[in-house]
Amino acid sequence: MLRFLLALTLWSSIGLPAGGADRTRLSVYTALEPEQHAPVKAAIEAAVPGVEIAWVWDQTGTITDRILAERAAPKADMVLGLAATSLQVFKAADLLLTYRPRGAERLRPAFRDADDGYAWTGMDAYLGVICFNTQAGERARLSAPVFWRDLLAPALKGQILMPNPVQTGTGYLLVAGWLQSMGEAAGWAFMDALHENVAAYLPVAATPCREAADGRSVVGLTYDMRAATLRATGAPLRIVVPADGVGWELEAFAILKSTPHADLARQVADWAASREANLLYARTFAVVAHPGLATPPPDYPPHAEARMIRNNLAWMAENRPRILAEWSRRYGAKAAPLAPRE
Q1: Cβ atoms of 126 and 225 closer than 8 Å
Q2: What pLDDT score does 21 carry?
Q3: β partners of residue 177
């Protein structure tokens, strides 16, 4: 029975034909959270009847490295729900099809490719926050942080968990945000000091906040909506958006120029830029590309978007290899391995 259930899980993860043999399978690489896969797949297949979506999922850094490794023999047709900085890296490597989806002009300017040869479009934005376990903090006689520098308190030694920026988009936006807002020298000095208090750098972006929610750490760094979701379940969390500004990133989509199914991929891209698609994104993200559609939950910090720093996505894309190499050299010894998937 166990083998049968595992087989069913495997088949569902790669996507069985939803409408019969007349559907064309598109391999779509994504870093969307797993709970988003089914509703987004269903919505795409309803809007584009000739397509079947087959997700290939992993963390942002892993998917980014995979696409670059496959550049000589690409396996993906599209990317949907991956960091815009990664898509800019792919564009610079001449891996993306030039296509501006129908209705893109209605999206907020920051969510549109501003360079020549339009190739990617934003879906939603996510930003770095602090999950502070109030019960654990009270036991340790710690006040909730207000500024990033408050994480350097000696009492927090070994009590902070952070996503690994090599593997996760959230980890990278945190690092890139500190380097941009503080300046590179001060940003690395801050991370040197923070490293003394970090217990581990985790390979999944949601895990640090989940660990804090369960009381296994006092502080977990994560992205905004994961923190809000966990707080909504009753976890004793305070969501801190530091007053000195937070890094952020866009999730975006694009078409690989190598795809043999470009016409169908364009139809999927048209859907992904639509108002209907943005309403779906708004179920799980507080900041979306289409203006006026965001519906953040009651526990979402009302000042979060106002504290997003002036972020240079092109700089993040261009400097990603250098920054991650330096981060790994300095802090990689505390990187936790990814647990094998069942």
Answers
A1: yes
A2: 59
A3: none
Whether 237 is covered by a domain: the verdict is yes
Q: Are residues 101 and 173 in the same domain?
A: no
Task: Report d(CA 165, CA 21) in Å as an integer.
Answer: 41
Q: CA-CA distance, 257 to 94, in Å (whole number)?
A: 8
pLDDT range class, residue 339, cuts 50, 70, 90 = low
Q: Could you give the 3-state DSSP secondary structure of residue 212?
A: helix
Dihedral of alpha carbons 145, 146, 151, 154, sign: negative
d(C-alpha 283, C-alpha 296), whole Å = 8
Taking only Cα atoms into account, the Rg of the chain, rounded to an integer number of angstroms, comes to: 20
Q: Are residues 100 and 41 in the same domain?
A: yes
Is residue 204's pLDDT more than 80?
Answer: yes
* pLDDT at residue 105 in the model: 97
The range of the structural domain enclosing residue 25 comes to: 2-125+249-288
Which ranges constitute the DSSP H helices of 219-312?
224-232, 262-272, 275-281
Work out the average pLDDT over 176-201. Answer: 98
| Paired tokens of 299 | 């526990």
| Average pLDDT taken over every residue of the chain | 92
Domain membership of residue 339 (yes or no) is no
The two beta strands, 51-57 and 24-30, are parallel
- Average pLDDT on 254-277 reads 98
The token pair that represents 248 in the structure block: 């952020």
Q: Which of 124, 215, 217, 175 is nearest to 324 (CA)?
A: 175
Q: Per residue in 18-62, pLDDT tens? A: 444 589 999 999 999 999 999 999 999 999 999 999 999 999 999
Identify residue 5 by its one-letter amino acid code: L
Neighbours of 260 (CB within 10 A): 9
Positions of E strands within the chain: 24-30, 51-57, 78-83, 120-133, 160-163, 198-202, 219-223, 237-240, 248-255, 287-288
